[in-house]
Amino acid sequence: MKKSRWIAGLVMCIFISVAMAGSVPASIRKLPTFTIYTLQGKEENLPLSSWSILYFFSPDCFSCVNTLLRLQKEIVEKKGVLFFPICSDCDWRNLKDLRESLPPDLEVYFLSPRDRAILGV
């Protein structure tokens, strides 16, 4: 009797661990609501029905900007994937300076101070 309970408990633990292996924490599944802005000050809403890559970077980080350029080149080749490079710690003045050094087809976005606090960046 003890052995059958132990085996049933073991099977139950295995079942629970397998079921939970595919689950994703709620913080990863649900993105907080926030708005991104273009350099022209236009609000952009993130499309929730598409695959999207949000790349948060700092304009002072040279390797971050290089990664941004490589990602943009790779993602252009992928169909159906949207790319949103977001300068997380800059305002429109910083973004305008950065924009001059980037390819013309690459749109870079920035956040409002309120949204920075929401996202913790």
List the helices and strands and how they pair.
Elements: H1 2-21, H2 26-29, E1 36-37, E2 43-44, E3 51-57, H3 62-76, E4 81-87, H4 92-99, E5 109-111, H5 113-119
Parallel strand pairs: 3-4, 4-5
Antiparallel strand pairs: 1-2, 1-5
Count of β-strands: 5
Topology pattern, helix = H, strand = E: HHEEEHEHEH
Return the domain count.
1
- Amino- and carboxy-terminal Cα gap: 56 Å
CATH superfamily, please?
Glutaredoxin
Helix content: 40-55%
**Which outline best applies?**
globular
Mean pLDDT, as a whole number? 69
Q: How would you sum up the major sheet? A: 5 strands, mixed
Please state how the strands of the largest beta sheet are arranged side by side: 2-1-5-4-3
Q: Beta-strand percentage?
A: 15-25%
Number of helical stretches of at least 4 residues: 5
Provide the CATH architecture. Answer: 3-Layer(aba) Sandwich
The structural class is: alpha/beta
CATH topology: Glutaredoxin
What is the radius of gyration computed over CA atoms, rounded to a whole number of angstroms?
A: 21 Å
Name of the CATH class: Alpha Beta
Give unreliable regions as ranges. Answer: 8-21
How is this structure best summarized?
The protein has 5 helices and 5 strands.
Q: What do these coordinates show?
A:
The chain is α/β, with parallel strands linked by helices and 121 residues long. The chain has one domain: 3-Layer(aba) Sandwich (Glutaredoxin). It has helices at residues 2-21, 26-29, 62-76, 92-99, 113-119, and strands at residues 36-37, 43-44, 51-57, 81-87, 109-111. It has a five-stranded mixed sheet. α3 links the parallel β3 (51-57) and β4 (81-87). The protein is globular and about 30 Å long. 9% of the residues are buried.
